[in-house]
Predict the structure.
Amino acid sequence: MTEVIEPAIETVTIDVVLSALADPVRLTFVRALDAAGDWTCGSDVLRDTGVTIGKSTLSHHIKVLRDAGLIRTRVDGIRRLVRLRYEDVEQRFPGLLTMLRTPDSARAATETPFEA
């Protein structure tokens, strides 16, 4: 089995990660991949999300997420399996992916009263 090269986590910058996550389809993809938990065929990830996109568009989104250091891709025959680089991203940007797990978590964090 072959692995596709992704950037070393030390070279990943927050602006690239946030730019990749700014697209609603990619954000949905990351959340669905997180829920899947392990190696999953890239075309299966969005199946239960209600998002439908073409193969070339999906390939583009996967490349953007991989280049941003968020996912790892492994070639298995003719299939490409993907997995979230959860531990790596958590080490580099603590709490980022945990916050993305629920859409309301970011809003809740901003609504928490600030104590002086």
Notes: The mean pLDDT is 86. The radius of gyration is 15 Å. The CA atoms of residues 1 and 76 lie 5 Å apart. The chain is about 50% helix and 15% strand.
